[in-house]
Structures are given as C-alpha cells and as structure tokens.
Amino acid sequence: MTFAARLPAHLRPRREKVFGEGRPRGLDRNAKVRIMHFARALMRPTDKGKAYGPITAKALAVLEALLWGFHNARSGLCFPSYETIAKRANCARSTVAEAIKALEEAGILSWVNRIKRVGERVQDLFGKWLVQTRVVRTSNAYQFTDPQPGGGGQSAGNGRNSSKSENPSGLTNQDSLSSLSTPAPRELDPNSELGAALLSFEAAFKRRNALA
Question: The sheet that has 129-144: what strands, in order across it?
C-alpha cells in the first residue's frame, strides 16, 4: 500500500487533473510481464483467514485488460472508460472501480483525471446567444509502475517506448480523444486598464532587451 493510501481521506493529495493525454509512460513487453508477475504474487493471502491477498482475481483481470488490451507500449497512451474496461475484463463497472483502487494502493498503477474544454450555446439576460466554455471530465489516464528499477524499455528523454508495440497505432481500443490543445492566448485589450498596463510593461521590457 502506498503512503498516500494510508492517509485519511481528508489528508490525501487531490487527484491531478490534466488536459489531453494525461501522463503516458511507454512500456515494452518484458516490463508488462514483470508487472503481471508482481500482481500475481500479491494474490497470495497474507492475512489469516483470507483466501486472497491485496490483489484479487478480478483485479488481476482488470490489470490484464488495461496492460494488454488498452495500453500502447510505444506511446504509453491508456485512457479507456470504466465501461470499456468492464467489457474487456468481463466484470461489472463497480468491480473495475474497486480493482483500480486496489491496484493503485499496491503501487502497480496510478492515474490522473483527463479534462477538456467544451463550448455550449447559451442565452444571456437579454436573449443574445453566446458560446460559453466549460471544463468537463473525460476518462482517466493510467500509467503503470515497472517493479524493476530502470526497466520498461523507455526511450531516454521522452519516456516513450522505442520497441515495437502490440497496439502500434497509439489509439487502438481507446475511447475517443478530441483535440484538447490549449487555446491560443487572448489578445490584450488596450482600452482596458489591465490590458493597457500589460502592453506598457511589454513595450518597456522589449526596449530594455534591445539596449542590453
């Protein structure tokens, strides 16, 4: 069990929210085999009177579905929905939630909330139609921990795998991924007090650099 999992719920760090693909981590086939062996070892009962350990057979099935059915070895992308995982692992959605919790507490995987911006047409108080942007959650993005330090076959520098992938496309079996690039910064309004101040500061900064 990880240190964070031992803390009371109100003291645990808040789940990270990221736009786009999450925190992909490439893994070669050998790394995936090591992870599965480690998970199977955790199925052995450790407490007296229990027939299983921290990882149950259903949790192992969910891990197998994530690693071999959805995780792309080369790109590291892995963001299926609970419903998609449940169908692949032949279990209920609630079982997927419990399995992912157990796998995270065992230090086998971690995940972040993927979010994206969507635009909606709404009417203001005067009946004029406007486009309002809001942020919504999508499926989680998962990454896995190789039990062998320095293992995984990741390329240096970018954390992506250089070996051949069983899912070479990078998006095979994943839920749809919209274009989630961060929008370009808005132009400053010189007629507003804040915009005029920022434009003045930018001009002074450029003059200073030109004289340096």
Answer: 17-19, 109-123, 129-144
pLDDT band at 96 (very low <50, low <70, confident <90, very high): very high
Range of the domain at 96: 3-175
Same domain membership, residue 96 and residue 50:
yes
Note whether residue 181 is domain-resident.
Answer: no
* Positive or negative: CA dihedral 62, 66, 68, 69: positive
Separation CA 103–CA 51 (nearest Å): 18
Can you tell me whether residue 30 is helix, strand or coil? Answer: helix
pLDDT of residue 168: 42
75 lies in some domain: yes
What pTM was estimated for this model as a whole? 0.62
Q: Contact 113/137 with Cβ under 8 angstroms?
A: yes
Give the count of domains, the chain. 2
Does 180 fall in a domain?
Answer: no
As beta bridge partners, residue 186 has none
- 200 is a domain residue: yes
207 token code pair = 């003059």
Q: What is the CA radius of gyration of the chain?
A: 23
Judge contact between 90 and 60, C-beta under 8 A: no
